[in-house]
Automatic annotation (TrEMBL):
Name the record gives this protein: Heterogeneous nuclear ribonucleoprotein F
GO cellular component: ribonucleoprotein complex
Stored Pfam families: RRM_1
Domain RRM positions: 94-185
GO molecular function, one term: RNA binding
Keywords linked to the UniProt accession: Repeat, Ribonucleoprotein, RNA-binding
Superkingdom classification of source: Eukaryota
Keyword Membrane among UniProt keywords: no
Annotated CDD domains: RRM_hnRNPH_ESRPs_RBM12_like
Length: 185
């Protein structure tokens, strides 16, 4: 039976899904539902990579036409905080987690990204998956907490064409991530 609410001349309506990127790492389903207040979201799928939330989710809407309304909320902050709020509230330990590196990036590229800081190759840890391929993540150890906090000014800058996200981290988180994969030595 043809439903006249769809304007897709003889074609079935598109699958009503919206991809979210750059979500806060403590984001919950309730946060996403609040963000899309007034829209009917049937299901929310949070994407995990390597056992960690990737900051990405897919939301299935009840109606294809609501996808257009959802897309109008592009680049808006989510409820209580945006993805980068709170980064200044985290205690810095001298370790930063980089996300979004080009898979071809090496330690020299990371050192060039942070060229205003004294780094050596042994302080840059590019994380590889169990197959030995880069994950797009790296951990960088700075001389002190002040340097890592200052280096956060490079958050959301680009390396080549890639948008790099920076997060304060800890030596334990770095060690755990390295143990799950294998860092480039």
């Amino acid at each position: 039976m043809y439903n006249p609410s769809y304007a897709y001349a003889g074609q079935p309506p598109p699958f009503p899904v919206v991809r979210l990127h750059g979500l806060p790492f403590d984001c919950s389903e309730a946060d996403v539902i609040d963000f899309f207040c007034g829209l009917d979201m049937l299901d929310i799928l949070f994407v995990h990579k390597g056992g960690r939330f990737s900051g990405e989710a897919f939301c299935v809407s009840a109606y294809p036409l609501q996808v257009d309304f959802a897309i109008q909320r592009n680049r808006q902050n989510m409820g209580r905080r945006s993805a980068d709020d709170g980064k200044d509230l985290v205690e810095h330990t001298g370790v930063l987690w980089m996300r979004g590196l080009p898979y071809s990036a090496g330690k020299d590229d990371v050192m060039d990204f942070f060229k205003d800081y004294k780094l050596s190759e042994d302080l840059v840890h590019i994380v590889l998956n169990s197959d030995g391929r880069p994950t797009g993540d790296a951990f960088v150890e700075f001389a002190n907490a002040e340097d890592s906090k200052s280096a956060m000014g490079r958050d959301r800058m680009t390396l080549g064409r890639h948008y790099i996200e920076l997060f304060p981290s800890t030596p334990k988180e770095m060690d755990d991530a390295i143990m799950r994969g294998r860092p480039i030595i």
